[in-house]
Amino acid sequence: MVEAMPPAIRHLIVVLGDQLDRQSAAFDGFDAAQDLVWMAEVAEESTQVWSTQPRIAMFLAAMRHFAEALRAQGLPLHYRRLDDVANRGTLAAELAESLAALRPARVVLVQPGEWRVREALRQVVAEAGVALNECEDRHFLCTPAAFARHAQGRPELLMETFYRAMRRRHGVLMDGDQPAGGAWNFDADNRSAFGRDGPGFLPEPPAFAPDAITQDVIALVRSRFGEHPGRLDRFAWPLTRAQALAALDAFIADRLEFFGHWQDAMWGGQPWLYHAQLSAALNLKLLDPREVIARAEQAFRDGRVPIASAEGFIRQILGWREYVRGVYWLQMPGYLDLNALDAHAPLPAWYWTGETDLECLRDTITQTLDLSYAHHIQRLMVTGLYALLLGVEPRQVHAWYLAVYVDAVEWVELPNTLGMSQYADGGLLGSKPYVASGQYIARMSDHCRHCRYRPEERTGARACPFTTLYWDFLLRHAERFADHPRMQAQVRNAARLPQAERRAIAEAAAAIRARV
Ligand code: FAD
Ligand code: SF4
Fold first, then answer.
1. Strand (E) or helix (H) holding 171
2. N or C, where is the chain less crowded by C-beta within 10 Å?
3. Whether the CB of 466 sits within 6 Å of ligand 2
4. Mean of the pLDDT values across residues 123-144?
5. How far apart are the CA of 513 and the centre of ligand 1, in A?
6. Which CATH number is 11-135 given?
7. Nearest CA-CA partner of 383 in 407, 356, 408, 409
8. Residue nearest to atom 38 of ligand 1 (CA)
9. Tell me: the pLDDT tens digits for 155-165?
């Protein structure tokens, strides 16, 4: 539907579902007398992977709130709703139709966060014979071109090298030319577990009750995508800039202090712990990473949070988040097809239901489907680790991660999944595969206490499948990692096992795979 259309359109400003930023370059020089904003809800973005209902609701509800804000500011807007009978189902088809009807002199678009979408939109605009102005995404602190310059000539990419350069370039947590707190990295302080008694009192994170717009979206998602996984009865994500700022305030005040210490810890039935829950607000561009980083640094400078928490949190945003985006644009489109470990097993069907007797996976997947959220270690060292050890085809793992989380956008999801968690890029993003036995999960959580399996057992009726598959992984890939400086010791340990034990591990691992 076109609302208050200018007579002849100079610029058609295309705003995608993860570009909800009034300060973006697409709005530079906006003139309501000549320009028109264009937004479209399309089914393809919810079905090209089997998106969870909360993920679909997150994008649609945030888009509708952003459209409301634009209307309130008097900006002319073309907004196609998903339930419009004339909706053509894909961004490309919708835009093609609008270009034919509206004949703008130019399409203005911030660089999309997904290769597939960028290519589709470029093609549509070219076919319509309309000029295209694809603007830099100013939300990020490092452009793809600057990252390519950083990568050029380096035999290997290291996040830590990139992160230190970003700290220097942007003057973050710096005292002159030295890192604040006397060290660049406090990672060693960020690996504590809760111990037998668990986390104890946890601050309640803010919840944003669905308003009328969001309730409409929830009803639409239930009727249109009711067979998709996930639940909507606990949907309480921040959907507007004001709500995102409130969520940021609450995190800085209540949870950042302990973020660093418990960053890697897990506890059954406790999804949030001391995590920020800000990734979706950041990825939809409701928050600017600069303001998030500045607030964390200020809390440290004011003596309200320790350096290990401020640095640990800032490293995720100024370091990892920018780094994975750099790798994505440097490597696409070929990155999607990488499969360095030659993994071809199917993803277990219970990744879509949580119905498994492996307690850590049951807890993480159930939480994921209920809330569309899991924190980093749950993603990396539970669901990701199991898929890696099982040898699941990386593209299937990627499709699952892109579907299930409210914060999932390909530029950030793909490198985390395919590179960091599955080692499918052969060590381009992270120097070694994140492999561990069930003993790691036993140390970092309470899951094993409630599980029928035993994390210390490699074979036998009660052997933990993670542990069996971990030793099997080392034996299967012994040759590949024999000279790897950070894997050598693990591989040698496996090679030292008696032959009968090695055979028993291989048979037990084959039986686990056969059950899948
Ligand atoms: P916190 O733990 O509180 O961290 C603070 C912020 O740091 C996050 O909000 C996020 O913006 C940023 N951050 C932390 N780790 C990373 C990282 N590795 N890469 C990029 N940014 C990071 N993050 C996404 O935003 N979208 C995804 O689709 C996504 N998929 C992932 C898939 C796998 C297999 C793995 C291992 C990680 C993935 N991550 C993804 C990274 C990370 O798990 C989430 O950003 C984080 O769990 C979000 O929760 P939070 O906001 O509470 O984060
Ligand atoms: Fe997970 Fe193994 Fe622990 Fe069970 S014993 S919770 S499967 S790590």
1. none
2. N
3. yes
4. 97
5. 29
6. 3.40.50.620
7. 356
8. 416
9. 889 999 999 99
